[in-house]
Every structure is written in C-alpha cells, then in structure tokens.
Design brief:
Chains A, B, C, D: Keywords: Allosteric enzyme, ATP-binding, Cytoplasm, Glycolysis, Kinase, Magnesium, Metal-binding, Nucleotide-binding, Transferase. Chains A, B, C, D: This is ATP-dependent 6-phosphofructokinase. Chains A, B, C, D: It catalyses: beta-D-fructose 6-phosphate + ATP = beta-D-fructose 1,6-bisphosphate + ADP + H(+). 4 copies of one chain form a homotetramer. With about 325 residues, chain A is of the alpha/beta class. Chain A folds into 2 domains: about 180 residues, 3-Layer(aba) Sandwich (Rossmann fold), CATH 3.40.50; about 120 residues, Rossmann fold. Chain A is built from 11 helices and 11 strands. In chain A, the strands form 2 sheets. Chain A has a 7-stranded mixed beta sheet with strand order 3-2-1-4-5-10-11, with helices on both faces. In chain A, strands 7-8-6-9 form a 4-stranded parallel beta sheet, with helices on both faces. Chain A is elongated. Chains in contact: A-B, A-C, B-D, C-D.
Chain lengths: ~325, ~325, ~325, ~325
C-alpha cells in the first residue's frame, strides 16, 4: 500500500481531529503517502482531495469538530456517485481508505468495496457510543463530560430553588450518554430507550423524595426514551403527581457534539487512527478498528452494522442504589 | 446597628454565595451579629432564620447557587405576610437587612420599610445585567462566559458541517448577555430586544456570506427579541432565504444560571457585600449598592426600579464591523 | 454486618467524595449503619467518628478533596495507636471498614486485621494509577485531564514564541500521568521512570525537529524520571544541544491533586464504593476492590502491595510514531 | 491611509488573536489593505509579511497565543535593524502600524517614528495589567481566571489535609493578578510588590487562624514580592511560626500565559483592535488605545512608559476584612 486517504463522515465528534492526525502521522512514519478528502463521500465524488503531511495536522489534536469537514452524502448512495468517487481515487492513485464515522459510513464503504475493490478500515467516530465492536467510540467521553458539566450547573439552580429538573441528553437509540452523565451527575432517575421506566415509578420516586424532604431532583432523559422526550415526560409527571413540585425542563442540544476533546478521547482516537493504518497495511478490509479490554480489535462492518451494543444494566441498578 | 440579616431572593445567580460570605465576614469584622434567612421572604415569614459566623461561609466563594436558597414569595405581597415577617425579625432583634436580588425584591423591601421602618440595602444579583445603578450585576460575567463556552462548542459543529446556527441565550427584556456572548463568540448577527433587527437584514447577511463562501454562521438571539425566539426567527429565515442552507436552532436554557462564578463575579460580589454592610452602618436605606466606573455607589430603589438601563449601541455597530 | 465505617487516607484524590457517597448510600440501601471517620487512622485513634446518612453525602459527588479529610498517621504504626483505634471502633460497634487510599493505607489495615480481626475492604484512591488490581484508580482520569489542560495552555505560548517546554507532571514511581497527558497533549517526547530515555535521544529528536523547522516542542517528564526532574533534564539538554533553542521549564505541581472529578472518576468511584460495601457483606477482607476489563474484582492487599503495575510500552511506541 | 500592518510583540497573552481579528476586519470594513507581520520586529526586519483578509482571521477569536507569533527583538534596538525594517515596510507600501504588546514594544515604535515617520497605534497586550492608560490589558482577565482555577483546585487539597499553601502567581512588578485571584480565591493573605506585607504579620495571621481552628490557609504571593518569591517567603515563615503547620509551596508558572480567552478579554481585545485602526485613520500616532470607564481613550506612549499604574489599596483592605 503506497497511497491512502482519510475522511470524516456523518455527525462530527470531538476527537476526530486527533484521529486524522494519527492516521497522517502513522502513514508518514511508514512511508505511505496520505491524502485528506473533504466533506466525506461528497468530497470524494467532487475530487476535493489534497495531500497531507505532518504539518497539515500540527496543533489540531485539541480541537473539536473536524478539519476535513463532514457531511452526509445522498449522491454516494447512487451508482453514478460511487463511479465518480472511484474515478477520483484512481486519479490520485489511492489504494486504501480510512473512514472515520458510524454505520452509515461503513455501509457505504462496504458497497464501494464490492463494486470497486478499494478497501476501507473504519474508525468509530460518534458521540453516541452505539457501535458494536469497541468499548467506546471517539467523542463519547467528551460528550458525557459536557453533559455532566451542564448537569452540575443545573443542580446549583435546582438546589437553590427546590426544583425538579428533567434534563434531556443526546442518544436517539442509545442510553449511554444518559446513564453515564446521570450517574456522574448524581441523578435520582435515568430514563433510557433500552429499558422502560414507567411514569408511575418516576412519580413514586419523586413522592418518596418529597416525603424525605429531598426537595430537589435531577432526572436525566435520553432523547430516544420510549415515554417521550424530556418535555413530554415532564408533562405526564406534572399531571400525575399531586404534590406542589416546581418542575422544569431543559434540553442540552448541540453543545454535546462540540468542544475540546478529553484526554480519553484524544488517546482513544490516536490509538484507533494508528490501528486503522496498520490495519490497511495488514490487508484488513471492511472492518472497523476498535478497542475492547484495552486491546486493538478489528470487527467486520457486517457485524458492527448488524449487532446491537447492549447497555450495562448494572448501571441502572446503581442509579437506584445511589439515589437512596 | 447591632444585628443584621442577609437573604437571597428571585432567580439565583453565580456569585450570590460570594456576596453572602462578604456580608457575613464584614459584619463580623465590625462586631455586628449577622443572621441568614432561608428562601427569601418566605423564610422571613416562616422564621427560617439562623445566626451565621465566619465558619458558616467557609469554602462557599466558589459555589454557584445560593446556600440560603431563593424563592419568589406571594405571601410577602400581602399585608399579613409582611406583618408576620416583621414579627420574626423582631423576635431575633434584627435591625437591618441585606437583600441580594433584583427589582422584585427591592420593591418588596421598599414597601416593608414604609410599613415597619426596617432598612434594607440591596445588592444586584441577576444574570441579566438589567439593573440601573451598577455597571454589572452579580452573575452576569459568569452567564456570559457560560453562553460563550456553549457557542464555542457549537461553532465546532457549525464549521464541520457548513451550518447556520441560531442560538438562543437568556435575557427577557435585555440584550446584554446576547451582545457580549455574541461579540466574544464571533457571531455574525446578534438580535436583541432593545433594537429591531429586521428579518430581511438577517437574510441579506446570510446571502452575502454565502456568496463570499462563508459557509457557517452563528446568530445569537436574546429570548426576548421582538421577532420571536430563536426557533421562530429561524422559521422565518428558512422560508425567505432561497439558497440551500442547513439551519439549526439551539436554546441554551438553564445552564446559564448556574456554575462556578468567574473571578470577576466573585470580586464584584465581595465588594458589593462589603459595601452593603457599610451602607447599613452609614444609615443608608432603600438603596442598591452598585459599582460604577470602579467606585461604590448607592442608588435609591425607586431609581433602580423606574429607570431603564440602556445597552451600548456601539456594541451592535461592532458586531457588524467584525463580521465583515 | 450491621455497622461499618468509611475513611480516606493518604494523599487526597478527586472522586474520593463520590466514593464516600456510594459507600454511605449503598450501606443505607442494605440497611447497614454507616459511620464516617475523619482524618484517616488519626481520627480512628482519636474517636473522630460520626454517623452518616443519605443527607450527609448530598451534593458532594462533584467536589474535589474529601469531606472526611485525610492524613498520614505515624501513631497507627505503633501498637498503642492501633489498640486505641480498636477501642474506638468497639465503642461504636463497628464491624467492618472501607478504606479509600493506597498501599500505605492497605498495609496498616492488614496489620490491624491480624491483630484485632476487623475486616477492611480497600478502594484505590490515588491520582498516580500505580496500584495493581485495577485498570484505573480514583482520581487518575481527573489528574490526566488537569495536566492536559495545562499542556494545552503552555502549547499556546510555546507555539507563539517557538519554544521548547519541559513540563513536569506527578508520578514518583509511575509514568502513567506522563504518558497519557503526553500523548493527549501531542508531546514530542515523554520521559517516564519505568523506561530510560537517554538524553542523547532527546537531543537528537529536538535537532531533527529543528531541521524540519518544527520550532516548538513539548517534552513531558514524570517527576520520578531516572534522568532527574524536568529542570535537571532541561539543564542537561541545554548544555548538549548546539542550536539556539529557547528552552523553558514548568512544574505543574499540586493542581494535579484537586479539582472537580471527571465523569469517569465519579463513575469509577461510585462503582468501587458500591463494590466495597458488597464486598464486606460477602465476607471479603484484606482485599482491594478494583475494576478490570469493566468487571468488579477483589485483589488481596498482599498482591496490591507486592506486585508492580507495568505501563503499556505500546504507548511509548505511539508517542514516537505520532511525533513524526 | 491605504495600507496598514499589524504585529504582536513581547510576551504572548490570551486575546491577542481576537485583537488581530478586529484589526483585520475593521481595516477591511473601511477599505484599507492590511498586512500581518510575523514574530514582531524580527519579522518586520526579515520581511516576514503577508496580506491578510477576512478569511485569515476566521475562527481564531477563541484561540490563545498569537497566530502572528511573537518575539523580543535585539536587532530592532540597533539603527541597522530599524533601517531594514523601514525598507521592508516601504516595499509593501505600509503607512501605519498596529502594535499589540507592552512598553518595550511601544518604546521601539516611538524611536522608529522619530526616525522614519511611520505612525504606530499600540494595543495593550500583557497579562500583567501594568500599563497606564487603560483599566485592563488584553489577557489579564484570562490570567486571573486561570490562576483562580488553580487556587480552587489547591484549596481542595489544602482543606483535605489541613495545610497552608503558598501559591506564587505572575506579576514581576505588579500585584494585579495576585490581588484579584487572591480575593476571588478566598485567600487569607495576598503579598504584592507594591505594598510590603511584613513576615511578622503573616505569622500573626496564621497563628490567629490556628487558634480559631481555621486549619487550612491560602497565601497568594506575586512573583515580584519584596519578601522574596513564594518558596523564600515560606521558608521564612516556617522558621518563625512555632506551631506544627504543614506548609506547601506551588508556583503556577507558564499556564497563566495561555488558554482560551475569557469573554471579557475577547471583547476588550476586539474593541481595542477596532479602536487602533480608527485611531490610525484619525491621524493618531505614538499612542496606546485603552479603555477607561468603558470609553475608548488614546494615551501617548511617553505616558504609558513613564507613569506607574497604582493598584487599588482598597482591595488589600478587603482581603483583610474577608479573611475575618
């Protein structure tokens, strides 16, 4: 393998730049030429491709977002789009790809390989931590800490005013951010998509707290919770709880995607970037590089796409015990 | 004056604890007994009052919220409520009050003085910075920095995806937080209640940016903007702009009220707490202590309540120049 | 087991409060009475012991330091001291202990058990991450992020002035903080006690960088490095490098011990606190609770004390590759 | 004025990039061509000069350091050096300069004007806040908050171990950082170069605290204190205090120069950058732009160089009262 390219695709996540840096520096270290593709598959189709060197990635390890920009591409879902993309890669002589993104990105890469034989190694870049094949994904630790900082701030106000706060965090299909930020934030209840928390149970917990004169509470709700988003859940509670509780709702929103990556995310991203390049060198294809139990592993895209990543139900048990 | 009491009232703001600490320590320094009243006027009515010492305020200067808790009181708006409050203060022998809060609090204190002759010196505690009689209010600098951190994070995502973000910050009647966080965050446009920004102007600015291939933009909207909240403004823009811009909306919400106070807020709060006690000692009553041009000043409550605090329109001019 | 006590001992670490909270809440959950002992073994000897409830640990999960205070105890190293300690525990009817600390603490607990039969489960509380029997210790993730924030700030200055900075981080016998903060901070070289980095190699790397016109560099040095502390290493380099490099030294010092714990540390501390109480309930004694590969494990004190915790040499290889 | 140039000189300070951005954008707004000079006067002599546009300063407002790099220049202190610098400026047709730095920079600019008639407007960029002619300098608010964060962390440890900490902050000739970070950090004593704090007074305060069972203390020492640096002061105290106090020393060092600028510093820097360009347009020369009582003012370099900036002694009085 003499020439490879790297791109970011799907939602951006803190640590993507650290991963790009590791891909570029590792390639340089092994004497491989490395190219950057801007705006994901869109840039691949448009030929928005440039050669990168060590200097290209100086002083980016600490930056949120992605210097290669990211996008979702409808055109790459068409045969014509992929044909153009292949021609562009041919033009530059690119023989392998590192794709930093999630399952949408990996699905595209699989089809592309079947059609044109260009191998891709994926790196899991998403704040949701919902990818099978790795303990953690790039951006997840930062997102949890961002959510936690927000919860800490809100608790100041909740305590000062004896309020109950419903805080909605990201996680469409996954309760990872909710559970970790909830435990770390000392939440009384955490509601996640994977496990139903009945409204009656929430009402009961609030009433018990009230009777113990626990006057303020934090309830963390994942955006994909079965009972609805935080505002909907709060409405249901308000209509059921008979005591005079001051209930507020806040949705953390897009701040969870950005920010300076934590040490954990930078190191994870660096290891995965290095592992992705070494994976390509060792003829891996259609696999995602991950870290499980502190070891680099390569998992086929078909598994990362097909298999669910269960949450640790012990964690939900812990929320209950610690809010005693 | 031998015995005074301190309380916080209205919305909590970072730095209130630093102010409480300064009130307590200053009173101790001058040999005055000092009491804390919990939950504002509600606690005054209920007699939720306790003696404070230097130890009571150890290690609180860095904490958000208020250790005395805060509340809005309907009962204090009744004659019966105030009668009860007076009786409680009598019981403890309290001769003067320091009220940390805003105009609602000061209005109550004025009526209370007219009826019972207990003097109050107010300290401006509100993140909105909308009080006449002081350059800055306690909590404002922290709120601006909290909003700014959020804007910084969102810009990472905006840049990575070439998006336009409408970010709603707090400020029902006041654009202070919007303007300062907008300038500091490099916003292209800032919309405030005090000055109408026509939708057509926003559309024009976005189009011009688009033509200069400025692909991402941040628009900060104060919650009290005349054109509506951020979601409403964004809707209007979407229907008018003909180009294919990816527009997102986020509302920062309650995180702006909490958090560790900045150096500025802690120092301001400390100076005002000291100034409030010295004000009571010098027979000030029905006044708010403030800092104007770095000097302590006392402004009658009737002026802080009656007079508007204009924003600096030079700042709006600066937004325009700096987004060139 | 009806009554247990918890204490912190040795150097404080962020997350100790989260661990205390988990111990207290878990004990309450299982109907066990729980006591807090202040200032470690000193307080045990002095009888500085009080009953704790859910309220005692409200709103402490986010605080650095330890509400139970910590100390090293010479008196507990004497037979008389331990005799007094035992009498105090007898007085309160305490049947088991949770000790949050390091190997010094665990050694004391082992002797104490041999003499008086009071079982202890330990929880690893130290920023150094140098304890065998757990992947990570309480406080380590926070310390790494604190060091990293400092490195980020210093890089701003290093870049602006084309300087080489030697940054000394904590870790007397262990390079964990140095390696993780060094990789995450994009350091060109990391010097740790476990592996000798010859001065000549550092000089060579700096010269190579200079020749590639890489004008600024960060070198992270663990305080226990064989070549000396950061100032000593910098002196050796200065005298050997012939080119005109502007070399500066900074020692991060005590800031690394404090601060708001990260999400990771709060969750780790919570799990370990819960695991410690459940360990005592299941008749564990003279063991440290740890987490290895995301599972709770109990390791005998004799092993945590005797066995070294090796650093991952792959990480040192990564530093070299990524500074290409 | 058709063409101007901007440069940074002396020690870097957070907010310098925000100032550069404002200079560039304001010049563009008024139709003036603007150039950046790298590495201060050194780059001026070497002709390391390039044209800047709005894009050159995109996304830098939040970055510490300076994208134009900074240096102290010995060559500019020679007649030959300045001759070369003039020739370079001639080559580019540059008619006016904006210099972001301190008194060393302004002295050079004054001599340069006398010799070659190129006018300079200075902007005060230094974390020390020791410049006459402005209430605050660029970088000062960030440095104070950085020192404060460190003090907050150290207090966690001080409290947990009942220790006395001597913390040295920057400020060779100026106690500004020490006083503000000391008050905000709740320090018991602040030692500054401007006012002698006798060792005996420090000893007395520590003993009194000890007698009131105030077991931990923070003493902030400016690096330029007359009694010596923090380590020296601590030594003197140790030998004089007879009680068994655990005394530690930490020097914050270079972290105080870097970091993401606060809202205050970004706004101040933006206003000063705008004011500097408008100053040149209005034929100002050999002046520093500053903000006093929230108004833009221009002060002759000869005054900023000659006149001292006194600290507010009321602040020292406040330290004493608040540590009661």
């Amino acid at each position: 393998m003499k020439k490879i390219a790297v791109f970011t695709s799907g939602g951006d996540a803190p640590g993507m730049n650290a991963c790009i840096r590791a891909v570029v520096r590792t390639a340089m270290y092994y004497g491989i030429e490395v190219y950057g593709i801007r705006r994901g598959y869109n840039g691949m189709i448009a030929g928005d491709i440039y050669q990168m060197t060590s200097h290209s990635v100086s002083n980016i390890i600490q930056r949120g977002g992605t210097i290669l920009k990211s996008a979702r591409s409808k055109e790459f879902m068409t045969k014509e789009g992929r044909q153009k993309a292949f021609e562009q890669l041919q033009k530059f002589g690119i023989e392998g790809l590192v794709a930093i993104g999630g399952n949408g990105t990996f699905t595209g890469a699989t089809i592309f390989y079947d059609e044109y034989g260009i191998p891709t190694v994926g790196a899991p870049g998403t704040i949701d931590n919902d990818l099978y094949g790795t303990d953690y994904t790039i951006g997840y630790d930062t997102a949890v800490n961002t959510a936690l900082e927000a919860i800490d701030k809100i608790r100041d106000t909740a305590d000062s005013h004896d309020r109950v706060f419903f805080i909605e965090v990201m996680g469409r299909d996954s309760g990872y951010i909710a559970i970790q930020s909830g435990i770390a934030g000392g939440a009384e209840i955490v509601m996640v998509p994977e496990v139903l928390t009945p409204i009656s149970e929430v009402v009961e917990t609030l009433k018990q707290g009230w009777n113990r004169s626990k006057s303020s509470s934090i309830i963390v709700v994942a955006e994909g919770d079965e009972e609805g988003n935080a505002a909907e859940v709060a409405e249901k509670i308000k209509s059921r709880v008979e005591i005079d509780i001051d209930i507020r709702v806040t949705t953390l929103g897009h701040i969870q995607r950005g920010g300076i990556p934590t040490a954990y995310d930078r190191i994870l991203a660096s290891r995965l970037g290095l592992g992705a390049v070494e994976g390509l060198m060792n003829d891996h294809k259609n696999v995602m590089v991950g870290i499980i139990h502190n070891e680099i592993v390569y998992t086929p895209f078909r598994d990362t796409i097909r298999l669910p990543k269960p949450i640790n139900e012990d964690m939900l048990r812990m929320v209950k015990i610690l809010s005693t």
